[in-house]
Design brief:
It is built from four helices and two strands. The chain folds into two domains: 60 residues, no CATH class; 63 residues, no CATH class. 32% of the residues lie in helices and 10% in strands.
Length: 161
């Protein structure tokens, strides 16, 4: 922010907003974002404080809209089938059309991560992980070191590769 201020002030007035996705209805994801509003002081007037306006919008939206991780799992059955075919082809496996359970496509390491995550879910929550429509597990993790999943946070995964 300091660099931006040194480049833009005094011609621009800068307003920095820290926005949590939950503030604007996306409770099912986690990632704070920073927005900077730049107002040209000679050609514009600030009629309302952006921070106050944001707070009013947040207070209006939060009780009315709250997504869950499952709201972001939107692939169609055709898209899932195409991805399954692609994985099967790349792993030299036979694609089995019509199956909802695609665990046969997992390699040994991925199956181990899934088994670990399911056991940990059962241990922590005393229920079947397959009954949780909001559960997502990142199979690229080494569970002895890190487990990226939606079970604890209640947020969709934010995995950047």
């Amino acid at each position: 922010m300091g660099v931006l201020e040194s480049l833009m002030e005094p011609e621009y007035q800068l307003y920095r907003l820290q926005v949590d996705c939950e503030d604007v209805g996306h409770a099912g994801i986690a990632r704070t974002r920073t927005y900077v509003i730049m107002r040209h002081v000679q050609t514009t007037d600030c009629l309302y404080d952006p921070m106050d306006l944001y707070e009013q919008v947040r207070e209006y939206i939060m009780p009315r809209a709250r997504t869950q991780p499952r709201d972001y799992m939107i692939a169609t059955s055709e898209e899932i089938a195409l991805e399954a075919m692609s994985v099967a082809r790349s792993r030299k496996l036979v694609y089995r059309p019509g199956l909802e359970d695609l665990t046969y496509l997992l390699n040994e390491r991925e199956q181990g991560v899934l088994d670990y995550a399911c056991a940990e879910y059962r241990r922590r929550f005393n229920t079947d992980p397959y009954m949780d429509p909001n559960l997502a597990v990142f199979l690229g993790d080494n569970p002895s070191y890190a487990l990226t999943w939606s079970a604890v946070s209640g947020k969709a995964l934010d995995v950047q590769l």
